[in-house]
Design brief:
- An eight-stranded mixed beta sheet has the order 2-1-10-11-13-14-16-15. Strands 3, 4, 7, 8, 17, 18, 19 and 20 form an eight-stranded mixed beta sheet that branches.
- The chain is of the alpha/beta class.
- It is globular and about 50 Å long.
């Protein structure tokens, strides 16, 4: 049985989600309790398919020396389409959008729903309490944010970013509780390091995919990074845990996606920290690396056999920033051959919603996006 976009399910460190409008599926909650438990995270098994043992699954997907080579091996022979967007939060002008969560994303939700799987960065704490941390900007949202994501066509959000702990540990606890209550999949945060770095694993059309969320933003990172005894985010300040998480995910899934929060704000080209970390993530087994945080679109292309999109810019955003240019990156895993990419340009409107571009404006935006590949030091084809 092939699960459709609205029927599959996935598991990860403690929250489980079935697709909206889904048929009734049995769901299981898997909670990891130690760093070694990352290797024990497994995907929900589609109906009529015998579950693989964790040992057999890991052995089947153990990375070769060329660990970053994209290996999709679709069980159904059908393409799998993945959609990625940038930073989202519901504050300022976008807070009112949660009064009607079903329409919060506006017309671009039709594009997000086209994909088999859609992910983006939720740049906020979801809380009404807590103490503002010693930093300039503080973002918080109502729990309806998770409803808006689901209704807008989003399947998963990373919260490993420099705003998830804006209101301290109390705000983080509320965020985790709100996601759990909404049964909405998130990655990048948790009650301890094992949960924060744990992947969300799902099977789509026979392709097993693992997604990890990690921040590289240094601001308050020593206080925010999750440890064995402290809730927090996955942050590359702990490089050993970050690379270990990618390697563990590669043992679970043939396609590993790392959603990074990184870069220098206001820049179209990746900085030295991004350029240094990306090859290490690829060598550890990342098939796809998606980035956000710079408030600008940054280039995408191939780093060897790993597809990298360094920055997806603001997507649904509270105020004017460095740029209103945004869009959706569609990646299609092909049954035979490397993935293909398509960028659907949009602009952040006066409401904060992303509005798709058409005609000459879209063509111009696509050409500019393609030009960003040069300073990203990426290639148009896998090498």
């Amino acid at each position: 049985m092939t699960l459709t976009h609205r029927e599959r399910s996935g598991t990860y460190h403690g929250l489980v989600s079935s697709k909206r409008l889904a048929v009734s599926l049995s769901l299981a909650i898997a909670v990891t309790g130690a760093t070694s438990a990352l290797a024990a995270c497994t995907a929900a098994t589609p109906p009529n398919r015998a579950p693989a043992t964790p040992t057999a699954t890991a052995a089947a997907h153990r990375p070769s020396p060329a660990a970053a080579r994209l290996d999709t091996r679709p069980g159904t022979g059908a393409p799998v389409t993945l959609a990625f967007a940038g930073d989202v939060h519901f504050t300022g002008r976008t807070d009112a959008l949660l009064n009607d969560p079903a329409t919060a994303f506006g017309p671009i939700s039709a594009i997000l729903k086209e994909a088999d799987f859609t992910a983006l960065n939720l740049e906020t704490a979801v809380t009404g309490r807590g103490t503002p941390q010693p930093k300039t900007y503080h973002f918080r949202a109502r729990p309806a944010a998770f409803t808006a994501l689901r209704e807008g066509g989003v399947d998963l959000a990373t919260l490993a970013n420099n705003h998830v702990l804006d209101y301290g540990q109390a705000g983080l606890a509320d965020t985790l509780a709100a996601a759990r209550a909404a049964r909405f999949p998130i990655v990048g945060i948790g009650m301890n390091a094992a949960q924060a770095w744990a992947p969300y694993v799902t099977t789509i059309k026979g392709v097993k995919i693992a997604i990890i969320g990690v921040s590289q933003v240094a601001e308050l990172a020593p206080e925010w990074v999750a440890t064995s005894t402290r809730p927090g985010e996955a942050n590359a300040i702990d490089l050993a845990s970050t690379l270990a998480a990618v390697r563990a995910a590669k043992r679970l899934a043939s396609v590993v996606i790392v959603f990074m929060h990184w870069g220098t704000e206001g820049t179209e080209c990746p900085d030295s920290n991004q350029l240094s970390l990306a090859p290490r993530l690829a060598a550890a087994g990342a098939s796809i690396i998606i980035g956000a945080h710079a408030h600008m679109l940054q280039g995408s292309g191939w780093l060897g056999h790993t597809f990298v999109a360094y920055g997806m810019a603001n997507f649904l955003w509270w105020e004017n920033s460095y740029s209103t240019a945004t869009g959706v990156l569609m990646l299609t895993l092909q049954p035979h051959g490397p993935l293909t990419s398509r960028f659907i340009p949009a602009v952040v409107s006066a409401t904060g919603q992303p509005i798709p571009l058409t005609g000459a404006a879209a063509a111009q935006a696509q050409a500019h996006y393609a030009s960003l590949r040069a300073c990203a030091e990426l290639t148009a084809q896998p090498g």
